[in-house]
Write a structure and sequence with these properties.
Blueprint (H helix, E strand, L loop, with lengths): L1 H15 L25 E7 L4 E8 H4 L3 H15 L4 E12 L2 E18 L5 H7 L17 H27 L3
Helix pairs in contact: 1-5
Keywords: Membrane, Transmembrane, Transmembrane helix
Length: 177
């Protein structure tokens, strides 16, 4: 009975260690432009917070190189969720690598949309002269996830490790060792 309990415990442990956790958030601060959709331009009044907000996200070093934009977006998402903001103005990133983890910290001013109204003729001058200045860096929406190849490698490694642990436990229980 005791051997069966140990066997079941080993089986459950090996199966629960082979799970994958994926977190995805979307950051979209770009104007909405959809093909085939005609919409009336809308002007929004915005309020920029006076105090900077900080966000942070950590990712494994081997995944950071292919998912830099994802890590930055997750840090922005963390920051704007803390103060319930709509977007971040002038984000600055601090990227630190320590051992196996890369930590992305972002600092910026929170932005809030306050009033929405239809665009009027007087508003067109703002857009006419506003386009003469360099555009700010707009962070595109990101739904970047881990590469499929790295998932397959981890899955194979998990299966191999689980099989070796299970086989070793079976040999120990049956007394073959």
């Amino acid at each position: 009975m005791k051997k069966q309990f140990i066997l079941y415990l080993a089986l459950i442990t090996s199966l629960t260690n082979c799970t994958t956790l994926t977190t995805t958030r979307t950051v979209d601060i770009d104007p909405i432009v959809k093909y085939g959709v005609i919409s009336e331009p809308i002007i929004a009044e915005v309020k920029i917070g006076e105090e900077k907000v900080v966000g942070e996200y950590s990712i494994k070093n081997r995944l950071f190189n292919s998912n830099k934009e994802y890590a930055e977006n997750m840090a922005i998402s963390d920051a704007i969720q803390k103060v319930d903001a709509d977007y971040m103005v002038q984000p600055t990133f601090d990227i630190q690598r320590k051992q196996k983890l890369t930590t992305v910290k972002v600092e910026g001013f929170p932005g809030y949309y306050e009033k929405f109204r239809p665009m009027e003729a007087a508003d067109t001058a703002i857009f006419k002269y506003g386009n003469q200045y360099p555009q700010a860096n707009i962070i595109e929406p990101s739904t970047v996830q881990e590469d499929v190849e790295s998932r397959r490698q981890r899955r194979k490694l998990g299966i191999i490790t689980g099989s070796v642990v299970l086989a070793t436990l079976l040999l120990l229980i049956t007394g073959a060792f």
